[in-house]
Design brief:
Length: about 800
């Protein structure tokens, strides 16, 4: 919100400097982003009156003007502007004047003709970025008056960076209320007595979507002169708020928007047919906007229409076909309340962002519409003339926002703020913020005003009291907070330990958006339904991620595109999936690797990372929780992973995640320039560990035996280990798989797997016969169940 300080001070004028005013607003939660002068420094510029214009004798494009600047004899000034004419009033820089850029006006000759000054454009005075000619002033501008004083240019523009909950401060009246409360001053509100109807003409209004539009107000005004020039004071206030003058009807609606915070729109009445119809758009309907852009409407869009079709996108922008022009003589003014959630995101869906949508999305006062239309009528009649008809209003009270009272306890204020604020001061703050505060036994029952959508609980009111009193004015105190020692499950592995492990293994932690691009999501998790956002930041961040890979893969692409050849990233966060009608949030841990196994060095021969490297990282994560022995990597297919290099990770038989190489088609579609390997596991699976249990150490010696069995070439080693462990008696202490051999003396369709078995009894020394029997039993079981044979 950008506004003129002098305009604000007409409403409330505290005895503070501009800087002090900005500090007050910032400390009250209305952060001041910028303070800019409304015009750059210049001097020696007055209001001039062109009393004579002649063609330059030696230059067709130059004019020799006689300009009255209130100093007796008119000045001869040579001018090159094409819009200069006899009788024109324009800013005139006299000899000795200094213009922006330290440009000094001197006596000069242009093509042999003396020139004693300069007629100025808005650009030359720093009031506009571009200008097509001289800046024309009203015919009643007093000749010879200092131009800075005439336009009151010794002023500043203050720009606020408002949070979305403070839509009430997107207007002068809203900011004035805040300044009045902060300085304990009354606000001089502009009150409109109401403009009575002169004619009986009323345009019918029908609202078919009362939930979306609970209140719609309109008025016919006939006989206006739309070609009339907007008064300079109004044009200046609009300019200082960043709005360009576009004619009296549009300027008045924009002025009311800035003054009261109510967006409005004016239709050319003669372009409307059979009444106004507020309804949902029909699928496939089109609308040409005021910008000239043609859009195809969706069935969720709310439109203002007549019987011929849509006229405007409700709360966002009007249509070109019904727009007001200089030839317009009769208009229909509208002022409505649209339910914020029904408007939110619709403008962005069409690549639009307007002053109206910005306010309607955040919430407009639902009881402001009649006041706004009366104010606009009053201003418009004073500028363009015309005859107003009666106000037409359609309202559905049951759908208007309810003003729910909130209880505020005085003791609660003291407890939350840690400072005692007198009852009288709290009452004064609430009343100056336009809240209805009724005293009760232990505090107040407070009803927020209709323009404050953000007051819903007691803490909201406490915040209001604190910021108006001033956070820096709250007395400090030592808090009395009882401390409770929380129990920490001994078997749980802290997330910081897992992070440290991955960092030690060369990973870097990434933090990506929970919102992702639908194309990336579809490529990496096509079987899961992405949850679309109602109000996305952008089209590239429009769905909730169903896998953390949706953020890690684009991060890898970005790094590879910036010549980072070795990338290892991990992330912990939530993924979002639909379960029936609910949204489930699952904490996950995911990683991605690409490039070489080791950083570049001279001490070892490097190689590209492979499936088993990332599998080892996942096994180390599970080992921290003491669950590595309970995990099985089961060959399985995932639509985003390479069919020959992917595995489903199971813990105690339950799926907990996936690991593998990205599918080549996925790498191509996502512009990956290197092979990438990924993993994703449920966070609870790697944080909930198992407590180690102590067993008395055996006093008897252990016996180790190595065996090599020959199995089919496609037989998983894990299956052989699992079968051998199941066949061994309890004296088996450890079983390790340590070698695989394929080659000479082994059939090409088979392979040799080497197992190391450690046997030990707690009660006696084992004999060779007992050990041999155990080994024979294991080999026999392997042969019967897996077709394995002992290698010769």
């Amino acid at each position: 919100m950008r506004f003129s300080e002098k305009w604000l001070r007409e409403w409330v004028d505290p005895r503070v400097s501009t800087r002090e005013l900005a500090d007050q607003l910032t400390m009250a939660g209305l952060e001041v982003d910028a303070i800019d002068p409304v015009a750059p420094a210049f001097e020696g510029v007055v209001v001039g009156h062109v009393i004579e214009v002649e063609t330059h004798p030696d230059a067709d494009k130059l004019r020799v003007c006689k300009v009255d600047v209130g100093e007796g004899e008119p000045l001869d000034i040579v001018c090159g502007a094409s819009n200069v004419y006899k009788g024109m009033h324009a800013p005139t820089a006299v000899v000795g004047a200094r213009l922006p850029g330290d440009f000094k006006i001197k006596k000069a000759k242009l093509r042999g003709v003396p020139s004693r000054g300069m007629l100025c454009s808005a650009k030359e005075l720093g009031l506009a970025e571009a200008a097509e000619g001289l800046m024309e002033l009203p015919a009643d501008a007093p000749v010879g008056t200092n131009f800075r004083e005439y336009l009151d240019l010794d002023d500043v523009c203050i720009e606020l960076g408002l949070t979305p909950n403070r839509a009430d401060c997107l207007s002068i009246i809203g900011i004035a209320r805040e300044v009045g409360a902060l300085n304990q001053l009354d606000v001089n509100e502009t009150r409109t007595e109401g403009v009575g109807s002169v004619i009986e003409d009323a345009f019918p209004v029908e609202v078919d979507a009362p939930v979306d539009c609970p209140r719609y107000v309109g008025r016919v005004i006939r006989g206006i002169n739309a070609a009339t020039e907007t008064p300079v004071w109004m044009r200046e206030r609009l300019r200082r708020s960043g709005i360009r003058s576009l004619g009296p009807v549009v300027d008045v609606t924009n002025y009311v928007l800035l003054e009261l915070g109510q967006p409005m729109h004016g239709f050319d009445l003669n372009r409307l047919q059979d009444g106004i119809w507020v309804r949902k758009a029909k699928e496939g309907e089109t609308l040409a906007l005021l910008t000239g852009e043609q859009i195809t409407l969706d069935s969720v869009d709310l439109v203002i229409a007549d019987r011929s079709g849509p006229l405007a996108l409700a709360g966002i922008m009007g249509g070109e076909a019904s727009g007001v022009s200089e030839q317009t003589r009769d208009i229909f003014l509208e002022s409505a309340f649209f339910e914020p959630t029904r408007i939110a995101g619709r403008a962005r869906g069409y690549g639009l962002h307007t002053d109206s949508s910005h306010r309607f999305e955040r919430g407009v006062d639902a009881y402001l519409q009649q006041r706004a239309i009366e104010r606009a009528t009053e201003l418009l009649l004073g500028i363009t003339g015309g005859k107003p008809g009666p106000i037409v209003e359609v309202v559905s009270e049951e759908y208007l926002p309810a003003r729910t009272p909130v209880a505020l306890r005085h003791q609660r204020i003291t407890r939350v703020l840690g400072s005692e604020i007198p009852v009288e001061q709290v009452q004064d703050v609430l009343e100056r913020l336009a809240m209805e505060a009724t005293s009760i036994d232990d505090g107040w029952m407070v009803t927020p005003p209709s323009f404050r959508f953000d007051i819903g609980i007691e803490e909201d009111l406490i915040e209001e009291v604190a910021r108006v009193v001033g956070y820096n004015n709250l007395a400090g105190c030592v808090p009395n907070a009882p401390l409770v020692m929380r129990t920490e499950p001994e078997a749980e592995v802290p997330l910081t330990h897992l992070r440290r492990l991955l960092v030690d293994r060369g990973y870097q932690e990434a933090i990506t958006y929970s919102f992702v691009e639908p194309r990336v999501q579809q490529a990496l998790d096509p079987e899961a339904e992405g949850i679309p956002l109602a109000n996305p930041i952008s089209a590239d961040l429009s769905v909730m991620r169903t896998t953390l890979w949706s953020g890690l893969v684009p991060a890898l692409v970005r790094n590879l595109n910036r010549q980072q050849g070795r990338v290892r990233l991990f992330e912990t966060g939530l993924r979002f999936r639909r379960s029936e009608e609910e949204t489930c949030q699952e904490p996950m841990l995911a990683g991605i690797v690409a490039g070489s196994v080791f950083p570049e060095q001279w001490g070892t021969v490097n190689r590209a990372v492979d499936f088993f490297d990332i599998k080892g990282d996942v096994e180390e994560l599970l080992q921290m929780a003491g669950r590595a022995a309970d995990v099985v990597f089961e060959a399985a297919e995932h639509p985003a992973l390479h069919p020959g290099q992917s595995a489903l990770i199971r813990l105690d038989g339950e799926p907990i995640g996936w690991i593998g190489a990205l599918h080549p088609s996925v790498e191509t579609s996502l512009d990956l320039s290197a092979r990438a390997f990924v993993f994703e596991v449920r966070l609870d699976a790697v944080t909930k560990g198992r407590l180690p249990q102590f067993h008395e150490l055996s006093r008897f010696p252990a016996i180790r035996r190595d065996i090599a069995v020959v199995v089919e070439r496609d037989m998983p080693a894990a299956k052989v280990v699992e079968c051998a462990r199941a066949a061994a008696p309890e004296i088996l202490r450890e079983l390790k798989f340590f070698d695989v051999y394929e080659g000479e003396h082994i059939d090409s369709s088979r392979k040799s797997l080497a197992l190391r078995l450690t046997l030990q009894s707690r009660s006696r020394t084992l004999t060779d016969e007992e050990v041999d029997a155990v080994i024979d039993g294991i080999v026999t079981t392997l042969g019967n169940q897996l077709g394995a044979s002992l290698r010769e």
